[in-house]
Each structure stands twice: as structure tokens, then as C-alpha cells.
Amino acid sequence: MRARFESRHQADTGCIFVVESDEVVRSALQFILRGHRETHGFKSLDQALLKGAELTPEIVMLGIGFLQSDGERMLAEIARRLPGAKILMVANSANDPLARNSLKWGAHDVLGKPIAFDSVHCKVDALLGRRGNSSALLGLLPSSAAW
After folding, report:
1. How many domains, in total, are found in the chain?
2. CATH code of the domain covering residue 37
């Protein structure tokens, strides 16, 4: 018997930009978010900003490496060119000093590694103002409740 996963968010119409220079991380995030929201991956911020001229994302997931040289200016530029988009930093740790500074500079939240389905979905749902049952709660069910 085959089970088919149906996202509970299929009716949503917004999109997410994943801006990450590391192809493995970028691909993993896009894989995790498929079916959750329309997702566009970009190797550079310039590519994302060009796409943003025709399609404004609800969330920009931004790799922390993009903030190495002038993070405050970079986040201000994203906010100016993609108005209304929430910025979710992707960092090695939520306690990384640069990640913590990004919150002062305009980022909305930080996703620390390791990246997992539940952590990504919970962060995205929180930024979109969703509440409700987390898929993490399914792990609390006894094995006899498996379907």
C-alpha cells in the first residue's frame, strides 16, 4: 500500500526564496518546502533580487554567509527591494554572533542547523503567522496509532 503525502498548505499562494550559496543546503531546503509553498532557489542574492522584481516572496531564507562583509546594509537592501518579505537566516547555529546581529539588523528569525523537516516547517509557519498542530506532535503518538 502506498501512502501519498498531501500538504495541508496547498491552497496557499505565496512563495519562498531560498538564497544559499551551498547547493546541498539550498537543495535540501527546497526539497523540505516542496508542497508547502512555491519555492525558488538562488545561488546569489542578485539573482533573487532580479526575480523579486516580478514575484515578491513572503519569506526569504538567506544563508548567513551573505552577511559576512556588510550584513546590516545587505538586510536593509532586501527589505527595500522585497517589501513585506520576512527574512529567515540559515546559520550553523542560532547562537552564532552574526546570526544574533542579523536579528538586530532586520532579520525576523534564525534557523540553526541541522536542518530538519519539522524545524523548517515550524519556522516558516511561525513567520507566516500560523498556529496549529505541528507535525512534530505526530511523534508523540503511540506506534499503535500509525496509519
Report:
1. 1
2. 3.40.50.2300
